[in-house]
């Protein structure tokens, strides 16, 4: 069977002559993966007892060829050093014992010139081509790097499919993420199961390769208690208390903050998500906790909560009665709430970082949008750097695409200089500078439609906020975290 697409993931930011890897997955038709539960099956595996949620009609699917061998040509111009062909031999591939799917990591690459580069992979037999995400090469050691993750997944323990080991393995080895977190609904999880969740999360935490956060979702949209909405809670260390909105000591926002305050030196972050939704959203009039609410999830599979659809949001929340005015990200920012932006999946289909919702939810595919990514900006990858990047707003968010975005805000006496460097293999449609919720400037690409590098002066007075929104040629989005004058 011939491939229908090639996925290629490379680092987003490196130095000249620095070795890097090329991660490749050869795709074919989407296929259903049935359940299987033999007594000696190890996890993770492709066939699993947890591949189906009957009540929610969620079925696990795969879009990688079940087996394939062939040669892929590598093309990135004269600047690339390394193998010119990648070999899939049908045996030394896959991500777990007995897996013959064409998924591999190839080493030994470097780039000899600075600036943006893209790597093109071509199947020599079929001509099918894949293009990598952009990689920006600096002449010296970069002052920061970009690491990609999705910190928002559900397992079969609540209302998703697949077990924790399978989700972490998929995120690391198939979606090629750098970090992630299970944030399951704690109301469905027992104390003993929470111990297991933390143990698996710690087992998969490997600084420099794949970082994990101890995470959980506090789920409260019941009318009693003020319907405060959902919060994903992440801990800085390797453990933390379980938090359930159904427990009497944690059934209001006030009690939630009190529980977190009682942890002593342990730090926590609480991230509200699908905030614009009528049923599960956030009423900003209930306040903002600057100690814990360091970020807001601007996008997930539910859609974007940046602004209302009538104001130009092309991915509004449509499920659970849609969106409500006054609950969007710009509404919280206008109230003076200072949070960074993250993107997440809120996936339930067992595929963090690479969802297949049309197939996984055959009865209701139209309600979902592409999932989101969080990009963190730091010089190394670890649990600590991921947590601190979110806490310190050194993040940006995207929709299902590793868009390169570097924004530098420099305050002057009466305005702000906004320096923007952005790129996407999908091409760029526009870059908008957003001040106080209004698009005040728009930039378009030049001769190379994949890259925009520009700077503009934006008038700003004390208390104003500003961020950048990028739109690609495939209508994917990226948002920088806001800057305040």
Could you explain the architecture of this structure?
The protein is mainly beta and 485 residues long. It has 3 domains: 5-138, Immunoglobulin-like (Sandwich), CATH 2.60.40; 145-402, Metal-dependent hydrolases (TIM Barrel, Alpha-Beta Barrel), CATH 3.20.20; 403-485, Immunoglobulin-like (Sandwich), CATH 2.60.40.1930. The chain has helices at 164-173, 191-204, 253-261, 329-334, 357-360, 383-391, and strands at residues 5-9, 13-15, 20-32, 52-53, 58-59, 61-64, 70-75, 80-81, 85-88, 103-111, 115-117, 120-123, 129-131, 135-138, 145-153, 179-182, 211-212, 214-218, 231-235, 268-272, 295-300, 303-304, 340-343, 372-378, 395-399, 404-411, 415-423, 428-435, 438-443, 451-459, 465-472, 477-480, 483-484. The strands form 8 sheets. Strands 15, 16, 17, 24, 25, 28, 29, 31, 32 and 33 form a 10-stranded mixed β-sheet that branches. Helix 1 (164-173) runs parallel beside helix 2 (191-204). 47% of the residues are buried. The model has no long low-confidence stretch (mean pLDDT 95).
Short description:
The protein has 485 residues and is mainly β. It has helices at residues 164-173, 191-204, 253-261, 329-334, 357-360, 383-391; strands at 5-9, 13-15, 20-32, 52-53, 58-59, 61-64, 70-75, 80-81, 85-88, 103-111, 115-117, 120-123, 129-131, 135-138, 145-153, 179-182, 211-212, 214-218, 231-235, 268-272, 295-300, 303-304, 340-343, 372-378, 395-399, 404-411, 415-423, 428-435, 438-443, 451-459, 465-472, 477-480, 483-484.
